[in-house]
Amino acid sequence: MRENIHPQYREVLFKDLSSGFTFLTRSTIQTKESLVWEDGKEYPLAKVEISSKSHPFYTGLDRRVDTTGRIDKFLNKYKKAAAPAKK
Fold it and tell me: Measured between alpha carbons, how far is 54 from 20 in angstroms, rounded to an integer?
């Protein structure tokens, strides 16, 4: 294998911003923040908007997490198209 071409594979904390749920796994994601985990060690922190604790499929709840306004943009874009045609 060639040297220095692969990203660093390491343990990373992922934090769900909508539920506060944090879990430790391995990843190549690059982060600038870090957090001390339950074991007392400091790990890189990656913030995510949806995880298994907040996703409607896993929770059974119909919650919409829309931080960028994509749902409103879609509804406004197709509002006129959804109206019935006049005869």
Answer: 9
Cα-Cα-Cα-Cα dihedral sign, residues 74, 77, 79, 81? negative
For the record, the structure tokens of 1 come out as: 């294998």
**Considering its fold, how many domains does the chain have in total?**
1
Decide: pTM greater than 0.70. Answer: no
- Which tens digits make up the pLDDT trace of 31-68? 999 999 999 999 999 998 888 787 666 666 665 656 66
Q: What is the DSSP string of 22-66?
A: EEEEEE----SEEEE-TTS-EEEEEEES--TTT-HHHH-------
Residue 60 within a domain = yes
Phi, psi (rounded to 5 degrees) for 9: -100, 115
Which domain covers residue 44, as residue numbers?
10-82
Q: What is the pLDDT of residues 15-32, one digit of tens each?
A: 998 888 999 999 999 999
> Contact 13/35 with Cβ under 8 angstroms?
yes
